[in-house]
């Protein structure tokens, strides 16, 4: 899941809040493909930096 930064000086930053791959689809390049797509979408929305949100 891609989210935008909440502060006004962080408009260039996108946050990757969740990236989940079910066990039966792991080790097949799916996470990498999803990250490449997230990067593409982020660029289309003017995001220059992607940051991984902290795990809880």
From TrEMBL:
Pfam families in UniProt: Acetyltransf_1
The record ties this protein, via InterPro entries, to: Acyl_CoA_acyltransferase (IPR016181), GNAT_dom (IPR000182)
Q: Name one GO molecular function term.
A: acyltransferase activity, transferring groups other than amino-acyl groups
The lineage's top-level taxon is Eukaryota
Q: Which intervals hold domain N-acetyltransferase?
A: 9-48
What name does UniProt use for this protein?
N-acetyltransferase domain-containing protein
Species source reads Glarea lozoyensis (strain ATCC 74030 / MF5533)
């Amino acid at each position: 899941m891609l989210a935008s930064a909440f502060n006004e000086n962080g408009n260039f930053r996108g946050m990757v809040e969740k990236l989940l791959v079910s066990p039966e689809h792991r080790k097949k390049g799916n996470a990498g493909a999803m990250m490449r797509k997230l990067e593409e979408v982020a660029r289309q929305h003017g995001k220059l930096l992607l940051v991984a949100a902290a795990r809880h």
